Amino acid sequence: MSQTMAQLPYHYGVKVRVFPSNQQKQLIKRNSDASRFIYNEMNGMNRELYQLKQVKIPIGIVQQRIQTLEQRLKRPATGISNIHGWLNNNDLDSLMKANAIQNYRSAWKMFHKVHQSGTPIFHRKRTEQKYQTSCLYPGKVKSPSVTNGSVRLLDYQHIQIPKLGRLRFRGIPAKILAKKNEIRIGTVTISMDATGRYYVSLQLASKQPFVVQTVRKTQMTIGIDLNTDNFLTDSNGNVIANPHYYRTVKGKLAKAQRKLSRRALRAKKEHRQLRDAKNYQKQRMIVADIQHKVANRRNNFLHLISTTLIKNHDLVVAEELRSKNLLRNHALAMSISDVGWRTFLGMLTYKADLYGKNFITVNPRNTTQTCHNCGFIMGSHDTHKLTLADREWTCPACHQSHIRDHNAAQNILARGIISR
């Protein structure tokens, strides 16, 4: 008996660009709209059910409505489809419905587990489109792979997806194609971004590692201090400059957004829907394309740095950052968002597992204020704490000269080695 996706030890995600026909684009939009509708319908029923249960007086109509909603929420696939017959259209993927229901229930589970993101909210209609389906394998298939499921690779350039049929794609890694008979497909996400580009994201799993563990052990350790002045400074004294991708196009983007706003006002004055206003849509694509290029450049930069750090060091230590708290500082909010710290730390986390290396985060408390040579903490014994303007300082206890960020990186590495 073949293992499920959750039982397989190694997982990997791949996002490839696809090029659908006009008919396939219409099918993607219909499934995206249906997925959003099912999610919102379940959210609406849950909210109504909560309000009705606040009624303490046993009114017959209220009690009957509560029972009806509870029955529909137990089996929402049939309960919602029976009321809204258009959901039974043959163009809609049945597994799309199942994934929309599962995503809503997962949102509630995450709320009960974490209590930070809040209860599920209604998904509003946006330019972007997205829905999820799943790859199923017939019972007669003894060894599931990427070539024999309901979602499968037909060759190196084409993929088969339920309801959509054959799609041309590009961008799948060679290591996936080399092991295609050992890898199976799980959840599949079909999406369109604001620029009109279509993508397919594949959740893959295997019994064997996706990256062959041939990356040699370097016996090297490194600590990194993240900051907005420079992107990072490591414990060896190396400094990587902050490219400021957003700041380089900030003026151009602001000008394009002002033009977009004027075209939106003109369309509203002429009582035209924005989706039918050609000038507005043309300008919206320009704005989206600028933002898309900024995101791509930043992600490429973060991938290069994170991969280099993981491959060249057995242990990488960074400070534990909470970007949500840092963004409350309005003076630094734009710089913090532009640098992409949270994304960078996420990349280091999964790449360390992928390449068999170690990555840990430590509490950043006083890493900047502490002398790595003698352990003296600035702000104690009648001394003043260092400010952001103090880039170099001398320890009053041991008289060791420090470069602020280099000293912090050395303290971070020392804490990581102790806590390892």
TrEMBL record:
GO biological process per UniProt: DNA recombination; transposition
Family of the protein in this entry: In the C-terminal section; belongs to the transposase 35 family.
Source species, domain of life: Bacteria
Record domain Probable transposase IS891/IS1136/IS1341: where: 213-328
GO molecular function, a single term: metal ion binding
Domain annotation Cas12f1-like TNB: ranges: 341-412
InterPro entries assigned to the protein according to its UniProt record, in alphabetical order: Cas12f1-like_TNB (IPR010095), RNA-guided_DNA_endo/Transpos (IPR051399), Transposase (IPR001959), Transposase_put_HTH (IPR021027)
Listed name of the protein: Transposase
Organism taxonomic ancestry: Bacteria, Bacillati, Bacillota, Bacilli, Lactobacillales
Keyword Ligase: no
Record keywords: DNA recombination, DNA-binding, Metal-binding, Transposition, Zinc
Residue intervals of the Transposase putative helix-turn-helix domain: 13-51
